[in-house]
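== Folding the chain ==

***
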Amino acid sequence: MHEMAMVESVLQILEEQAVEQDFKQVKTVWLEIGALSHVEPEAMKFCFDAVVCDTLADGAKLEILRTPGKAWCYNCDDFVEVSNSLDACATCGKYEMRMTGGDEMRVQKLEVE
């Protein structure tokens, strides 16, 4: 389960930000996860509670913000939303597309004390 390692990386970001911005407790984490990121939001939530136990984020709430996959079609020069990298262009039906977004995962916002 690679989500455990990803949550550990999120915790590292929280700890670094706590030092830089001088806060002691994290109350809520808003995590943006792209549809093409191959990250399972429910697994992230499950792992989050286990990883942050006894840390500055113990008891924090994890809010998942899903962002759509995005691609640019070589044939019709249109930007379209996709749910996976094998989708056809919603405009012309062709498969010659370049993925342009939706594969990211990032901490978007924090509520801290």
